[in-house]
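Supplementary Methods, section 5.1.

A reviewer requested that the exact input to the structure prediction be made available. We therefore reproduce it here, unchanged from the version used in the analyses.
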Amino acid sequence: MAGPTALRRPAAAAAVLTPKEVVSILRQHLLLIVALTVLGLIIAGGTWFLLLRYRPQYTAETYIRVLTPIQQDPKIIETKRINKDLEYGNRVSITNLIKQQRTLQDLIGRDRIKETQWFKRFARYDENGQIINIDQCILKAFKDLKKRFGAYPHRDAEFVVLTMTCHDPQEAADIVNEMVILFLASYGSAKKAEVTDKLTELERRRTSVYNELTAAENAMADVAEQSKITDLESPYGRAFQHTITLRLNQLVLEQNNLTLLIKQLEADIENLKRLAEDPGNVQVERQVEVDPVMVLLAQQLAFLESVLAGQRAKFGESHKVVLRTQEQVDKIKHERQTRQSEIAEQVRQANLKNAKDQLTVLLGRNDELKLLREEAQAQNKELDLARIQYAQRVAVRDERKEMLDGIKATIESYKIIANDPETPKLQRVGSALAPLEVSSPKWEFYFPGGTILGFMAAIGLALALELLNDLVRKPQDVARFLRIPLLSVVPDAAEDEQVRDIEPCHVVRQAPYSIISESYRRCRTNIKLSGFDGSVRTLLVSSGASGDGKTSVAVNLAATFIAENKKVLLIDANFRRPRLHTIFPKQAAQDEQVRQSEFGLSSLLMGLCSYEDAKRSDVIEGLDIIDSGPLPFNPSELLGSYRMEQLIKDRRKNYDYIIVDGPPVLLVSDAKVLAKIVDGTVLVLNAAATRRGAAQRTIRELQAVDAKIVGCVLFAAKVLKGGYFREQFRSYQEYQKLQLAHST
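The structure derived from this sequence is encoded token-by-token as follows.
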């Protein structure tokens, strides 16, 4: 066998309806859609008329102005504007308060509401005029009020709208006005109570802050008394300084200077210690210059040096007079040097002693200043600590003063707010009037609404009818649910005027130009091109149940092959309900022929006659028929016997095609036996009777025995509006008119 083609294995169709299929379904049920749409319009119109006549509804409305929620200082004339969303949120909260259960129950409990006919509808009275089961009455009234009373905030305007719907227009206005009075009174009282509570809290807070202020001032006095220091309140860190700080600064400065002097003296002492090694000190030179001995010796030295110079000039260097004078000069120089050393030692010792004495005095003063400085630092530390404590008390005092002033100002503002008529932030705009027009029913709602609902119901019903219909009516059903090749779709005989008076089994021979005949020819062509390389020569035509049209398909399919000058053998294998002997009745004959006319397939398979005795060739040229013959007691065994298989094999040599009209697959097992013998099976599905489940079971039964299903024929398919045959019929008829005109 060759590989399967697109005809044998079509792609699985989508499991959902396509837009085109939905439109087709709607066109098929167009009359239903129009009828239900009109019915919906009529029902809506009748409902509107009855409600308008017997149950009219009137809606009264009024407004409550909602002021800005900001609690503005009444002493400020300028008005503050806040974000629109915040204002809208405030109106929403007011609306929720109006619609809350407590407010509605308070409204029902008011005497004026209990006197209305609206409330009396829910009440039952005893002979004394008292309400029976008041709780049940209020519950019913509350449920009805929740449905009829409405409150909603304006998005952009500063109003909350209150509405009430009743049968009596005046009662609707009275109820909504009573709600406004009730809510404004309760809400205003609540707001006034809030202001009063706030004033009480502020007075308590003012007393508490005043006590804290007094305590802070007492604490300041305690700090000053404990520290024994004056001028604690002077600003810390400014140019003005306390005497303790000044004295400390002076002692620090004096001690620093004294430290410098001590260091200078220590340096001088070190210098004095080095004078012994440095006789050329300036101070020593000055003492030498004023020393009388040194002056006398200098004079003598100068005189002797002049005498010596004269003697040298007169006597020469080696004269004894010169030498004697030279000795005297050297002696005086030695005396001067000795005297100079003595003077230097005396000056150094005197300076060293003076420096040490001064150093002792300065060190003593330094120790004294150190003690004074430590005492001043301790006093300054106490001053700083006292000032810090004092500053803390001052900060607390100033904070409490500022807080007290703010609380006093707030108290004054709240006193003004308590007496302000706008304190509740709600104002009544006006009283609701009795409405002049009904609010319900409105024809603008009922007529379009009824039409739309009727239209939607019609569409839903049309789709439901289509989806709930499980018949295999269209080629789409075959592709979506069965997934086997569709060989042809045979229209219902009532749809084609050319075949209305013709037996369905003789359509191809008696109405060759009809669309039904063309459908059988299409089936023949698809079988020849079915992908079995022309090997399909023996065919079993069967169906799931009896009456599906398999015999008509078998006979007409044989006629299409005969029209191609093919030799065909048609076998009636339906032993239980044979049909070929009635479609092709036997002609009257001699006794021998009468005896032979009783032979058929059953006789041939049981060996009671030969093939020539069982067949008939006097019906149509090129067509031989084997009737079913007498009903055997074992039909399944006969059809599955070797003789049946051999009959098919032997006749293939003499005929181009062998068509077996078999029994239904789901009723008996005969068809499955035959399906194993033939080359292929053609399954007939009746569009008016075959259901999807039955067709699927038929296919499964044949596949279970490995039967080769060539395809299926959708028999007796009716024309649907917008469906399969509408355009095909029109096109085919136009085509046939042109063909017939040319042929004549």
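Residues 1-15, 590-596 have pLDDT under 50 and may be disordered. These observations are discussed further in the main text.
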